[in-house]
Amino acid sequence: MADDTGDWSLYPYDPNKGAPIAFAIIIAVVGIYQIYQSFFLYHWPKFGSTMAWASSVWLAGFICRSISIRSPQNVGVFIAQYVLVLIGPPLYAAAEYFILSRLLSYLPYHTPIHPGRVFSTFVLLSTIVETLTGSGAGNSAGSGRTEAQRSVGLNLLKAALILQCFIEALFFSLVVLVERRCRRAGIFPKRVRTVCCVLYVTSAMIFVRCVVRTVEGFEAGRCEAGREDPYCGPVSRNEWFLWTFEVANITLFVILLSLFHPGRFLPKDNKVFLDPHDGKTERIGPGFSKADSRAFWATVVDPFNLTGILSGKGMVLNKFWEEAQPVYTGDDATAADDQPFVVSQAAKHDQTV
C-alpha cells in the first residue's frame, strides 16, 4: 500500500507513531510495580512470573512496532510486532487462571475442578492458542505472502481466536458457578466477592478482545484471491480498533490486576482455606491433592472428574474441611481487607507436622 507521500508501506493506514511508545512506557512502569507487589509485598511469585513474562512480550511488541512504523517496508520487523502484540493478551489471560486456581483452593468445598489443575488445564489450552496464533500470524502478516500461505495462516488464526473465546467463556462460567455455590451456602465474604468481580471484569476484557480479533480474521478471509491489499474490512483498515479494543483494553486489564492484586485478598499458601461453617475462620489443611484420591495422571487428564460424574460415582472426595484443622494464625483476614497474608511461625510449623 502507498502512504500519502507515495512511498510503499506494509500498513493500510498512516500508523500512530506516539502510541507504541506511550503504551510501552505504561506497561514497563506497571510491570515493574507488579514485580514488586508479587515478589516482595504479597509473595505470589508464580503470578508475578506470569505477568512479567506477558509484559515482556507485549513491551517487545510495542518496541518492534515503533521501529516498524519508521521502517514500513521492513517485512521482518512488521511480522515481529504483529505476532508479539497479538500473543501478549493470551499470556496475560494465564494470570487469571492462577487467580481462579487459588480462589478454588480457598473454597475447596465449592470447586467443580481440581484447583491444582486449573492453571495447567487452561495453560495447556492457551499454549495451543499461542501456537496457532504465532503460526497463523506469521503466515498471514504482510503482503509478501503467497495466497496459499495467507489462507493457511488466516485459518489457523481464526481457529486460535475462536478457541480463545471458548476458553474465556468456560473460565467465566466457572467463576459464575463458584459465586452461585457461595451464595447458595450463605457464605460469600467481601474478599471472595472482590476476587469474583475482578475475574468477571478481566475475563470480559479478554473476551471483547477475542471477538474483535475474530471479526478481523473473518474479514481477511473474505479478501478476493490475488488481491494485493490483504486488508479487507474496517477492523483491519482502521488503527483505532487496535488501540481501543486490544491495547487500551488489555492495558486496563494489567492496571486492574495491579490495583486489585490477588495477594491482597487471597492467601499465598494454597493449603489455607475458609471455614465452610462460619465463613470467617481461616484454616490450614493438607491441600486439595489429599482430598482427591485419584492418581496424579488422572487429575491431569480429567481435572473435572468427568469419568466419575458420567459413571454415577460423582466427585468422590476426602472432605478434610469437615474435619478439625488448625486455625490459620497469620494476619487477621477479617480486620483489614487490604492487608497481605503473612503466615506465622506457628502456622508454618503446623503445615510441616
UniProtKB/TrEMBL annotation:
The chain crosses the membrane at residues 20-44, 51-69, 75-95, 116-136, 156-178, 190-208, 240-260. It holds the Pfam family RTA1. GO terms for cellular component: membrane. It comes from the Eukaryota. It is found in: Membrane. InterPro entries: RTA1 (IPR007568). The keyword Translocase does not apply. Keywords: Membrane, Transmembrane, Transmembrane helix. It is a multi-pass membrane protein. Its main location: membrane. Signal peptide: none annotated. PANTHER family: PROTEIN RTA1-RELATED, RTA1 DOMAIN PROTEIN-RELATED. This is Lipid-translocating exporter-like protein RTA1.
